Amino acid sequence: MISYKNLNGNSNVKCYNISENYIDIEFYNTPLVYRYSNVVPGRQVLNELKRLAIQGYGLNSYINRYVKKNYERRIPVSAYNY
Known about the structure:
Layout: E1 2-3, E2 13-18, E3 22-27, E4 32-37, H1 43-55, H2 59-67, E5 73-76
Antiparallel strand pairs: 1-2, 2-3, 3-4, 4-5
C-alpha cells in the first residue's frame, strides 16, 4: 500500500494500492480495505480514483460525492495482503 499524500490535509484516506483492474483504498475510520474495480463502479470511475490517488488530492471527496457505497467488495485489514 502507498500512503496517500493528503495534500489538502483533511482526508480520511490512509493508503491505497493500484492494480490494472482495481484500486484498494484503506480509510482511517474503518478496519476495512475497499476495492473499486473496472466492474464496480466501472472503468471510468476507476480511472478517476486512480488519478486522484496519485495526485494526492480530492480522493475522499470524490468517493463521498459520486461513488459512495458503489464498491466491489470490502476486505478486513487483518486479512489484506500488504
